[in-house]
Amino acid sequence: MTYTPHGKSLIAGAWVSTGQTFASRPARGASLSVYTGTADLVHDACEAAEAAFWSYGYSTREERARFLEAIADGIEDRAADITAIATAETGLPEARLNGERGRTTGQLRLFAAHIRKGDYLDRRHDPALPDRQPLPRPDLRMIERPIGPVAVFGASNFPLAFSVAGGDTASALAAGCPVVVKGHEAHPGTGEIVAEAIHEAIKACGLNAGVFSLVQGGSRAVGEALVRHPRIKAVGFTGSLGAGRALFDLCAARPEPIPFFGELGSINPMFLLPEAVSARGDEIGAGWAGSLTMGAGQFCTNPGIAIAVETQADAILGPAKEALVGTPAQIMLTDGMAEAYRQGAEQIVAQQGVEQVYTSRTDDRTARPNLFRVKATDFARNPVLSGEVFGPLGLLVTVVSVEEMLDLAKDLEGQLTATLHMDDGDMELAGRLLPILERKAGRVMANGYPTGVEVCDAMVHGGPWPASTNFGATSVGTLSIRRFLRPVCYQNIPPKILPEDLR
Ligand code: NAP
Fold first, then answer.
1. CB atoms within 10 A of CB 160
2. Same structural domain for residues 28 and 85?
3. Domain end: 446, 477, 492, which one?
4. Least-confidence region, from 1-5, 77-81, 396-400, 415-419
5. Where is the signal peptide, in residue numbers (predicted)?
6. How confident is the model at residue 361 (pLDDT cuts 50, 70, 90)?
7. Which of ligand 1's atoms lies nearest the C-alpha of 241?
């Protein structure tokens, strides 16, 4: 490894230490002494971001596209170090992190191409009608403009793709918004080396250093100060429901309330329709087990519940259990997450009507899978059963009729995804479920598993509360840039002084 993390925060181009430190808790190797972030650092970063906006917010799309590509190149140049630091900090396997790095740089390049095209500006023009009766119409032009400095909070389970240079940062920078990231305590060294790549790209592109800052965590005061800072105009957050709700409430309570784009957890229901289960229950059961245990179940798209007709339950649970029994203990992202998973599993088991199909337990920073079943009547009465347990835990909910399946779908809370496993003979039932599921989820899919999220134009990674705090937004894909734009209408403004993109 050629890069040794120093644990400082990057504030507008300078690496800064503070008077206090915290020790990182890596899955492997030596702990890093990290300088705890402070409200003062947050203030300096936000003021610098505002100052930078006066140039960066008015830069050309080509300048920003080159900047995004320079960040991607800088991340690739540091590939080996990033993987080494991130595997040690998170315990995620090397191959997974190499893939996630590709996704992160691909995302940056996708946004570069997207802003070069310019469709996202949604330019509109209603030319003047001076002779219109009874009143003439003025010349009206509309364009999307960047909103100002954006705060970003990444999640522990995607230390690259949903962190320092992840989708929120890429989309905000693409829009023309400077970014202040609150570093995640679970991967401070990974955050630092990625911030270093952004820092170098800023210098290479000759941009104002305030365009990007990383304030390390270690204190709740950092995140709170960041969302409350008057220079911040929106927040991109990926993480748990509890943290998301706390920060969302702080944003709403500000003297100037700002949008909080929280991408939170989900239980991602899968509806296993009768014909599909009859034809290939084995395959679906084993596939569910594979999706549940991927990455130790630490995905926001983990399919935590499946719904099937009671008489077909064994056709799913048998093969699922068989696949789970052989799953070894997998390391979790943090000690706290491993403990929360154990507690979550114990809580599910204690609920009325829950039957254990397969249970296993570890007592260290690892997780083993758990599989349970419950009747729809007990599930419907108990909100504990529809809460996210972050880890490899599955719950099969059984229904006695198609009508009960439809009712269960109607009662679901907002989800990131909903899945139909269906064959041709299930078309009628699927057709009745789809209008319900489209009200519940950001992405509805057939015959697959929700754990892979494509980064592209048509992707929606969001959904109604509590999957996200804004049902109109996505945090993955090119549409995510909309979160950091604001439409402005220019009435009778001489073209010479209009924003360049409108001239
Ligand atoms: P987390 O514990 O909510 O942490 C996310 C960020 O919020 C961290 O920076 C954390 O800071 C901060 N935070 C936590 N509690 C806070 C509070 N009470 N007040 C202020 N800030 C607070 O989430 P995580 O463990 O990193 O990630 C796992 C969760 O993210 C899961 O629920 C998963 O489903 C969700 N997730 C969602 C998506 C999506 O796109 N929808 C993607 C990935 C993950 P500290 O470091 O100080 O704790």
1. 29
2. yes
3. 446
4. 1-5
5. none
6. confident
7. 32
In ligand 1, the atom with minimum distance to the C-alpha of 334 is 25
Nearest CA to ligand 1 atom 16: 243
pTM over 0.90: yes
For 363, phi then psi, to 5°, come to -120, 10
**Upper half-sphere CA count for residue 397 (Cβ side, 13 Å):** 29
- Same domain? 197 vs 331: no
**Residue 305 and residue 437 in one domain:** yes
User: Ligand 1 center to residue 166 CA distance, Å?
Assistant: 14
300 as an active site residue: the answer is: yes
Same domain for 149 and 281: no
Q: What's the one-letter identity of residue 142?
A: M
Range of the structural domain that residue 489 is part of: 9-264+468-502
Q: Do the bridges between strand 21-23 and strand 33-35 make them parallel or antiparallel, or are there none, so unpaired?
A: antiparallel
Identify which of 70, 54, 71, 171 has the alpha carbon closest to the alpha carbon of residue 120. Answer: 171
Which residue's CA lies nearest to atom 39 of ligand 1?
263
Name the pairing type of β-strands 14-16 and 9-11: antiparallel
